[in-house]
Amino acid sequence: FDHVKHKIYVINNMLVDNENSIDTLYEAAKTKINAVLQSLSSAHSLAPLYMNSNEVHVGVESNITREEWDTAILKAKEYIKAGDIFQVVLSQRFCVDRGDIDKFTIYRALRSINPSPYLYYLDFDEFSIIGSSPEALVKCDKEGNITTRPIAGTRKRGSSPETDDKLRKELLADEKERAEHIMLVDLARNDIGRVSKYGTVKVERLMDVEFFSHVMHIVSDVSGKLKGGFDSVDLIKACFPAGTVSGAPKVRAMEIIYELEKSARGPYAGCIGFLGFNNEINVAITLRTMLVRGDKVFIQAGGGIVADSEPEFEYRESQNKAAALVQAVLKLKNYQ
């Protein structure tokens, strides 16, 4: 489903072993596609979506205590002071009990509460991934035009347009946020530069503020042209993991994340999207994403730690980033 064009594309890929089977496979693919189209056009049995209209703040647990969080931030700052890294992204994992709420209903609630450029629901039986990511890892069209859009710098949304504008100006004037964002734009330029033609890497848009349901972010756009001899898999390898969810330099930052975070990240900060046979690619970073296993919903969020980061501010930022997902579950559970 293309969320911008509001169009559904139904695709069936065929593995052709020999030319003699092409016609048979083609007809079989048409049959499968028509069955999907018929299913999509049939009346659905989804119940109306009912949610509490007020914010709900009960029943949320974290995998890290506030004292452990402060200790981790201070340790990260020691590594920065020692010259190991410039920045590292640390996160915490929240857990919410979903009770008897259907997983797809949670996805519908998240779409309503936090519409985002990337929306996805993947059911793997034993667990499900439900997300509303604001950030592309990387995109490339069939002509080889590359785009990545680093997001770094966050404020909670205000209660009015006037407050939003005040917070937007405050965010853009924050020297820490600006320095962190510029560093990650440079890292994105370096990443796609590995697989781009010489002289094609450009910053198309620098430090605009975009608004989402619960937060606002500083966003930039970086572009390039895919170099001959490289494909979409090479592009992912060059960009993954994004600097906005790891840090800089990446390898040392990931080592520090492994040391300081309480749990393995799982799908958090990974990527989700599609790779086309024509080298086209559109992949999001798995941010604002839930992992649903049994009756538990796990939500992870964090922020970039630099030399002058304050544990209290970073703690609130991780809560703000997780807020839309937490509310998608709690507003369903606490509907009166």
Task: Characterise the protein shown here.
It is a single chain. Strands 1, 2, 3, 4, 10, 13 and 14 form a 7-stranded antiparallel β-sheet that branches. The model has no long low-confidence stretch (mean pLDDT 92). Strand 11 and strand 12 form a beta hairpin. The two termini are 33 Å apart. The chain has 8 helices and 14 strands. The protein has 2 domains: 1-45; 59-333, 4-Layer Sandwich (Anthranilate synthase). Helix 3 (103-113) crosses helix 8 (311-333). It is of the alpha+beta class.
Give the overall form: globular
Q: What fold name goes in the CATH topology slot of the largest domain?
A: Anthranilate synthase
Shape-level CATH architecture of the largest domain: 4-Layer Sandwich
Our count of helices gives 8
What is the compact description of this entry?
With 336 residues, the protein is α+β, with helices and mostly antiparallel strands.
Which key phrases capture this entry?
alpha+beta, Anthranilate synthase, single chain, 2 domains, seven-stranded antiparallel β-sheet, 36% helix, 14 strands, 336 residues, 8 helices
Q: Layout of SSEs?
A:
Blueprint: H1 22-41, E1 60-62, H2 66-81, E2 87-97, H3 103-113, E3 118-123, E4 128-133, E5 136-140, E6 145-148, E7 151-156, H4 161-173, H5 175-193, E8 202-211, E9 215-225, H6 232-239, E10 247-248, H7 250-260, E11 271-275, E12 281-285, E13 289-293, E14 296-305, H8 311-333
Antiparallel strand pairs: 1-2, 2-10, 2-14, 3-4, 4-13, 5-6, 5-12, 6-9, 7-9, 8-9, 11-12, 13-14
